[in-house]
Amino acid sequence: MTEVKTILESFCKLDGVRGALVVEAGGQVQESACGPDVDVEGIARLVDASSTLGRQTASTLGLEGVTQSYVEYEAFTVTAESFGDRALVVVASAGANLGRLRLEIRKNKKMLESLGG
Amino acid sequence: MSADVDLLTPLEKRLQAAEQQLETTPDDVLTLADYGEAALLRGRLHEAMKCFQRLSALEPENLSHCLGLGRAYLESGLHAEAHGIAQRVMREEQPPLAGHLLLRTLARTSHQTDQALAAWVAAHASWLPERDAVEAERSRLAEVIGQLEREVEHLMARSKEDANEPVLAFSMCLARERQDRVRESLGIVEAWAQQYDALDTERQRQEDEERLRLEEAARLQRAEEEQREREEQERARLQAEEEERQLREEQERARLQAEEEERQRREAEEAQRGTREREQAYTALKGQLDPLIASLLKTKGVTAALLVARDGFLVHEGHTAEVDIPTLMNFVVGAQAALSTYEKASWKTWVLELAKGILVLHRITPDYFLVIHGVTGANFGLLTLFIDKNRGQLESAFASAPAVS
Known about the structure:
The complex is a heterodimer of chains A (117) and B (405).
Chain A: H1 3-12, E1 17-24, E2 29-34, H2 40-61, E3 66-73, E4 76-83, E5 86-93, H3 98-115
Antiparallel strand pairs in A: 1-2, 1-5, 3-4, 4-5
Helix pairs in contact in A: 1-3
Chain B: H1 10-24, H2 29-42, H3 45-58, H4 63-76, H5 79-91, H6 97-109, H7 115-123, H8 131-161, H9 166-283, H10 286-298, E1 302-309, E2 314-319, H11 325-339, E3 347-354, E4 357-365, E5 368-375, H12 380-397
Antiparallel strand pairs in B: 1-2, 1-5, 3-4, 4-5
Helix pairs in contact in B: 1-2, 2-3, 2-4, 3-4, 4-5, 4-6, 5-6, 8-9, 10-12
């Protein structure tokens, strides 16, 4: 088992988290640890498309790069933290503790960055 | 002697007439010449020689008298004298036809070897007299042959009447010999005539060839002209077709352009009409929306709050700093497309934390969205809390908003 996979699975132990994955530029899934109800490929495409638009809009508005994207659906949320040309993505249920989740994401982001490609 | 047959032959009558004439005009050249010819034909050669000598004395420069004398010498067998005449004829630059006949006859019949005469005849073997002279001589010789024939017939008739007269038979033989000699001359003349016939035939053949060549050239020229005309007609037809095609294309382009302009005009009218109607409808919402926007703008870091229809139409907005409002309006349209890549659920809120600010997009209804623009310091939690708190008020405000097509 890879260290990235281990980190992703550690997210799944948090309350309300359905899965975690690392998405590369272009929407390719590098690694994932998700429950059976998570559409990994669909989430990856969503993160790639929204990140692309977010970067373009931020640049036009002078707010520079995207650090985190949060999309709320009726039953779940998708939080994507950018690092390098990749993103750490966590899919959580609607009632999950968002503050805790964001904290864990920031922590693990540094570990993922240290692991490199 | 029967009274049915004249004692005198036709030539003798001619001689008799001439003699009577000469009794009164002894130096008449024409009568003397006629007499000489008739005497020559009748075989009265001595009289013929005397006559032509007399003529030559009267007219020394007249070569025909000299030639007549030469023929008389030949008939008499006086070849040496005949050669003397021949010398004169050969000195002539352009001897007449009769001169040629005399020289040729002399060369053929002479028992003496005369190399100069033989050389002259050989040198003039291909000589061809004038055509008129040939025809005239042919007619004259034919007439002479006819006269001799009549002479023979007359002598024959007389010899039947007087069988005891041997002179008649002798005269008849001489006449026949003279007739043969004239026929030989006629043969030469006929050969000249045949050369003219051959020349005529060749000229006719050349003329026919030239006519055929000209006709063929004319036919080819007509064919070329017809071909050029056909090609010109074909070029004109193709050009007309091309012009017709271009005209049709131009008309079609004009028609399509007119249709497009009409469509754009109608769309512009409809858009203008729709814009006015939407502006009127949204103006009615401002009373409900102003407090919410004002509250948002008081939140830390928030610099602009917009309410935008899903087609990017601005419903209402407020801002505390200079913000690129059109970009935020377009962001609404782009976000719908980007987030629709996940098709299994419908999103409600999208928060983008940026290096120098924050963007929040909240779907109030399927047709209307709230956009919050914040700079560094704007708080993610506060903004999501605001949305949660005011969700009902926002939905209520847009419940009566027109549907966006």
